[in-house]
Amino acid sequence: MRIFRTLLALAIGASTLMLGTGTAVACSCAQVTDAELVDVVDVIFRGTIIDYQYAKDADGDGTTSSLDPVTFTFAVEEVYKGNATETQRVLSPNSGASCGLEIPNEGEFIVFAQSALWDGPALAEGELAAYLCDGTRPATAGFDTDVEPVAPDPNPAITAASAGSDEAEQELIGRTTADTGIVAVVGFFMVCIFAVLAARQFRRTRG
């Protein structure tokens, strides 16, 4: 199961975003079930947006990019996994091209969130991050699997232990970094080289 979850997260991440020196190229979401999403996100809650803050210059260079986060503040009504505060701040890249949430800045939503940003500033204590491919949707959409509300965690810190997940389950849906992209590219070329060498060896053997 852990191997499956790791492969699932890596496959989704690889198909979701390719980064080069911190710049997003594209974002597309693989099809996954709610049951799979529940396994890999840290926090799930239902809440209504009560505040929205536009992206700021996260790295201080005087410009903003699609990776600079916007901040949604939710009045939380129910928690389905992990721990969320009564008034929960959720950061997300400001563009869907960088896997940011594509939702209105008002309304009620079911939020699938992570305890860390994959790129950008560190989250303040109690903040969460959410992405286009994580599963966040209007509250009216509900779930395609049985998900029941849970009692709030008495420990306000969002940790792997409180989220009840192992390292594989911490993999971010729709997340990758420049390092991950480099590893993926190197791995791809290694596979290609191996295939060419194997084909040559096969032809020599037959000859």
CA-to-CA gap between the ends? 44 Å
- What's the main sheet like? 6 strands, mixed
- CATH topology, what is it called? OB fold (Dihydrolipoamide Acetyltransferase, E2P)
Q: What class, by secondary structure content?
A: alpha+beta
Tally of discrete structural domains = 1
Tertiary shape: globular
Number of strands: 8
Strand order of the largest sheet: 7-5-4-3-6-8
Task: Give the count of helical stretches.
Answer: 4
What amount of the residues lies in strands?
15-25%
- What Rg do the Cα atoms give? 19 Å
Task: Provide an overview of this structure.
- It is a single chain.
- The protein has 207 residues and is α+β, with helices and mostly antiparallel strands.
- It has one domain (2-176): OB fold (Dihydrolipoamide Acetyltransferase, E2P), CATH 2.40.50.
- It has helices spanning 2-16, 34-40, 160-163, 178-206; strands spanning 17-20, 23-27, 43-53, 69-81, 87-93, 107-113, 128-129, 137-138.
- The chain is globular, with a radius of gyration of 19 Å.
- The termini are far apart.
- Mean pLDDT is 73; it is low at 2-25 and 157-186.
Secondary-structure map:
Blueprint: H1 2-16, E1 17-20, E2 23-27, H2 34-40, E3 43-53, E4 69-81, E5 87-93, E6 107-113, E7 128-129, E8 137-138, H3 160-163, H4 178-206
Parallel strand pairs: 5-7
Antiparallel strand pairs: 1-2, 3-4, 3-6, 4-5, 6-8
Give structural attributes:
OB fold (Dihydrolipoamide Acetyltransferase, E2P); 8 strands; disordered N terminus; 207 residues; alpha+beta
